[in-house]
Input
Amino acid sequence: MSKTNLFKNDAILDAFVKLGNEIEKHVIATLGDSLRASIREEIVSEIRGKLFADTVENSAPLPESDPLPMTDLHGEPVTSAPVKTRRRIPAEYWKTYQRPLSRKHHEMITELDGRRFFTVSEIADRVGLKSTTVQQYLYDLQDHGLDIQTRKVSYRYGRNGKRGHRKMYRLAASQ
Output
């Protein structure tokens, strides 16, 4: 309904507004600001409760200690990064550790079958590994009890003044 249908005269409407203002002044003077604020807070909380009653009833209550989850710009929950803890392995473990033999270890065993000596770079080319990895794998084979023979080579220089190899390797011939 519009105001023209409810009140035929604007003077009556102004009188109601004036009466409401007078009642408000009287309540403020009588009750004081703190009581007025508490009454206002009760009314607002009651209205909020009615507005969100449907969502609150259907949701699980949050524990008091957990804050509401924060989200990033994409709506994903923001979590702190997990704290990385280093697991300290005692030095005694590494003294007796034997790396398990892999497929590449077995390929090296077939290449070093005892017929001729090979340099580390030749083994690396044949097996498809880096030279440093081949050197470590040779130590692994020795740790597993394989007899690897070495032969010293003169400290020679290759092309372009680069150093050559000092040792060559092969498996000892089985008797």
